[in-house]
Amino acid sequence: MVKDYRKKVGSKTGGIKLHKELKKDFINADIKIGRDKFYHFLRLNNLLIPKTKNYMTTTNSNHMYKKYKNLVKDHVPTRPEQLWVSDITYIKTENGHNYLALVTDAYSKQIMGYKLDNHMRTSLCTDALAMAIKNRKYTNQKLIHHSD
Q: Is the pTM higher than 0.90?
């Protein structure tokens, strides 16, 4: 039944939709099977659809440049603007991927600077850092900026 249904509507039909669509056929064939048992059946017969990759790599650690030690690994900040951490994440939209660079204060968890754009060029991060520097309140204090 499963293979026939997938041939008819498409091979990417997942387990929930399959169970819902085939429920009437199961009743007509006097087959009593719940959702979990149906999933177990699909798994045993290699009929589950493989999950698609839903993440994007934003950090490339496999490069020829010098890799510095993580000097802030066990560092716990004791005041605001003592340690800033930066990262890039992606946001999937109808028009493709956009990238968000953030500079966050590790003590207060406040976002000090950010930049959203459709590329991952250096300017994405430097613009976020420039905004963070502009937003500093304690300019006379020492600051550590940590990034991947």
A: no
Residue that the structure tokens 């300017």 belong to:
123
Q: Tell me what the mean pLDDT of segment 46-71 comes to.
A: 75
**If you search the block for the tokens 């991927």, which residue do you land on?**
97
Type of residue found at 10: G
Q: All domains of the chain, ordered by start, with CATH?
A: 2-44 (no CATH), 83-146 (3.30.160)
CA distance 23 to 13: 15
State the DSSP string of the chain.
Answer: -HHHHHHHH-TT--HHHHHHHHHHHHHHTT----HHHHHHHHHHTT-SPPPPP---------SSSPPPP-TTTT----STTSEEEEEEEEEEETTEEEEEEEEEETTT--EEEEEEES--SHHHHHHHHHHHHHT-S-TTS--EEE--
